[in-house]
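USER:
Before I trust my own judgement here, I would like a peer's view. Write it directly below this note and I will take it from there.

ASSISTANT:
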Amino acid sequence: MRRVDENELITIGAVEGGQLVAEKFENEMRERTGELRRLTKEQAEKLAAALEGECVAVKNAEWSIVMKPLPYFHIYFVLASDKSGIRVLFDKKVLEAGMPVDDVYDITRLVSNALVRKARKLFQNE
């Protein structure tokens, strides 16, 4: 499993204009992804593979799924080791690409919805 240095990851607040939406974004993502907290590491790996994502190792995380909707836009869904919640982080490449915060927000919302729907379908009987 590929190891990702958390120093290479940022929150939405680091994106230009992200400070204005950071709290709303974090609250929305916490609500949208809440049910993913129950997934085991093995289930997270199965979920990532089903959506052509990747499980990666991030320090102090139970599991981490990275989705790559664009070559320069990688979204990390990270379950804290205490299973307190999913953190949503981004690769710093998004800064170099100059991606607008509105696009970061909207694409992340769509990807998180896809993760949750697929998890429901895959693990509905577990």
About this structure: Strands lie at 3-4, 9-10, 54-55, 57-58, 61-70, 73-80, 86-91. The CA atoms of residues 16 and 100 lie 7 Å apart.
